[in-house]
Fold this sequence. Notes:
Layout: H1 2-18, H2 22-26, H3 31-51, E1 57-59, H4 72-85, H5 91-99, E2 109-117, H6 119-124, E3 129-136, E4 139-147, E5 160-165, E6 170-174, E7 182-184, E8 197-199, H7 208-218, E9 225-226, H8 231-237, E10 243-246, H9 261-269, E11 273-275, E12 296-299, H10 304-313
Parallel strand pairs: 1-2, 8-9, 8-10
Antiparallel strand pairs: 2-3, 3-4, 4-5, 5-6, 6-7, 10-12, 11-12
Amino acid sequence: xxxxxxxxxxxxxxxxxxxxxxxxxxxxxxxxxxxxxxxxxxxxxxxxxxxxxxxxxxxxxxxxxxxxxxxxxxxxxxxxxxxxxxxxxxxxxxxxxxxxxxxxxxxxxxxxxxxxxxxxxxxxxxxxxxxxxxxxxxxxxxxxxxxxxxxxxxxxxxxxxxxxxxxxxxxxxxxxxxxxxxxxxxxxxxxxxxxxxxxxxxxxxxxxxxxxxxxxxxxxxxxxxxxxxxxxxxxxxxxxxxxxxxxxxxxxxxxxxxxxxxxxxxxxxxxxxxxxxxxxxxxxxxxxxxxxxxxxxxxxxxxxxxxxxxxxxxxxx
Length: 317
């Protein structure tokens, strides 16, 4: 069910991204990502709502902005995309589906969704992800990442679908088309100097200068791979990178749970480790934000303690 929902969302996102023109980028027109974001949330929440009608969903968007006269063209475009790519529905139904993602408080069982993680990557035609996770009693039990622009293998045309169920391993298959799931594992890199780091493209999302200082402390010489979205979790999980650093950029910022939940379980089930900068597990019991954590460190597990030590030496708190 979760995989089918993410695949539905990926169809919407791909359709909208295919229509982005250089002219719209030059004008800094964010309307395509608005259409894809709401459309993606609508179709995912629809599937969850049908399968588990009593499950809360913590997601990014609500439909109130779409129901104004000014934004009627957005709702019209969202309606057209959903009807063309997924299912026939009225505009009222679409707004109801979007609003299924309006939960804000922690509960013993809930889903969290990022309908488009990596909006700037989406607009640039680069990496973005649809992230979905089921959380029971504060633990992630199911994690799904759809990465439409990340090939599942070198030279492949399809995107990647990563998924994990607690205790069942992490798996990768083409986002669409044929292809059996393949179990994935993190790298075995043990020498920090040989590690391959990845980090956010946008410096506002992670402290790039501090990351460079940490790399120097570890003796790492390879430049970081900068990539938008939770696709970074995917490349660590399949051993293509050894670590992902998301370092705090300001004292008052708390990470949103949907920016991480889908990817965390994929990495952990692939054999890796995910903590905050103090080495604490991520705590998903505080509603929409990781209020008990600061930053995120994702590694292949073997390197985790060395990287935490370097983070501490750099003065990151």
